[in-house]
Each structure stands twice: as structure tokens, then as C-alpha cells.
Amino acid sequence: MKRRVGFIGLGDQGAPMAAALALRHDLHVFARRDAAYAELGPVRFVRARDPQALARSVDILCLCLPGDAELRELLFADGVANALPGGGIVINHATGDPGAAMQIAEALARMGLGYLDAPVSGGAPVRSRGR
Predict the structure, then answer these.
(1) Chunked in runs of 10, what are the mean pLDDT values of the chain (131 residues)?
(2) 124 occurs within a structural domain
(3) For residue 60, what are the CA distances in angstroms to 34, 54, 55, 69, 119?
(4) Is 0.70 surpassed by the pTM of this model?
(5) Residue 98: predicted pLDDT
(6) Does the residue 129 lie in any domain?
(7) Cα 127 to Cα 129: distance, rounded to the nearest angstrom
(8) How many other CB atoms are found less than 10 A from the CB of residue 108?
(9) Alpha-carbon distance 126 to 68, whole Å?
(10) DSSP 87
(11) So what's the pLDDT on residue 125?
(12) Which residues are bridge partners to 30 per DSSP?
């Protein structure tokens, strides 16, 4: 099933993940820096004017931010969670505190939103050394 998936956090880890999502879903993205969009290469995507507009346009919002503080700020202080449609899902790819993940999940559940804590690790791909 093709979904409308949003992505914020187009760094070393996020950009390849977002590009992979674009192969099967309608990808919507937001980045603070214009240069970040180039990291997506030739994939098709819709560029959002701000994080709230992105949230209003998707069913699933993937976030690959530095940590819990940035996640909380974006979702709650900046109003992104309020902009998501009812039944929307937030997927957090940052490595953070499990207790914070539980608190965020509970806050989102009270808003009628789902939450998946799915941290990733690593950075740019490492080239094989002939092994």
C-alpha cells in the first residue's frame, strides 16, 4: 500500500532512508538547509514549506534528529504533533533515552497518534576493504 510519508532529518543517515522510502511511497520532506535536498538525488519528493505543513500532508512522519530534546521541541513546542492528522504515526530514528521514548509515546497517544521508536546507528556507508 502506497502511503504519504514525511521525513525530517536529511543527514548522513536520514537522506538514504528517505530516498529508499521514495521508491514505494509518496515522499514529502522538509529541511532547514536547501543543500540537504540535493542529498536525495534523483528521487521524487514533495518539498514542504515548513514542518507543520509537512505534518498536515502525511500519514506517517519519520524523524532522524540528533536526540530527544530536538524531537520534543519539533513535536510539541513547534506544533508538529498538533498538525498531524488523527491516526497519524511518528517514527523516531534517533537514538535516545528509552524513558523519554515512553513519555513521548504516551503524549502522542493522548493526541490520537501512534509512535514507533526505531533508532538507527552508524553514519555514511563504509567501503569494503576487499573482504
Answers:
(1) 96 95 98 95 97 98 96 98 98 95 98 96 55 42
(2) no
(3) 23, 10, 8, 21, 16
(4) yes
(5) 95
(6) no
(7) 6
(8) 19
(9) 27
(10) T
(11) 54
(12) 8
Q: 64-67: long-range contacts (C-beta < 8 A, 24 or more apart)? A: 64/7, 64/8, 64/9, 64/10, 64/11, 64/13, 64/14, 64/17, 64/93, 64/94, 64/120, 65/8, 65/9, 65/92, 65/94, 66/94, 67/94, 67/95, 67/96
pLDDT for res 126: 47
First CA to last CA across the chain, in angstroms?
Answer: 38
Q: Is 126 part of a structural domain of the chain?
A: no
Q: What are the start-end ranges of the E strands in the chain?
A: 4-8, 26-30, 46-47, 60-63, 89-92, 114-117
The domain total for the chain is: 1
Question: Please, is 117 exposed, middle or buried when counting C-beta atoms within 10 Å of its C-beta (0-12, 13-18, 19+)?
Answer: middle
- Specify the 3-state DSSP secondary structure of 81: helix
Q: Containing domain of residue 17, as a range?
A: 4-117
Q: Tell whether 125 is covered by a domain.
A: no
Identify whether the C-beta of residue 93 lies closer than 8 Å to the C-beta of residue 17: yes
CATH number of the domain residue 102 falls in: 3.40.50.720
CA distance 97 to 110: 20
